[in-house]
Amino acid sequence: MQLSELIRARAIDFFLANGADPTTELQEAILLKNGHYNGRCFSCQQLQAIWIPESGELALVIEHIEQDRISLSDEQTTANAA
After folding, report:
1. Which DSSP state fits 21?
2. pTM of the model
3. Contact 7, 31 (CB under 8 A)
4. What is the pLDDT of residues 52-68, one digit of tens each?
5. Which of 15, 28, 74, 76 is a plausible cystine mate for 20, CB 3.0–4.6 Å?
């Protein structure tokens, strides 16, 4: 599994676990800072998952309040080995 697919899958898992309607469209935006790639933001209803490439973490947000961060560094290594 590619890193982008892994990130998207974890975001979807978070959304579904927190009550998002599975028929609601997932929105995805590329984040830029000073014209350079700075991550991705996934949103569904009042939920957001923000990929932070510098730390290798996915920040999980409900109604603008960060709930948790999960590291995808270990998962990426495992996924690339497969």
Report:
1. -
2. 0.80
3. no
4. 999 999 999 999 889 99
5. 15
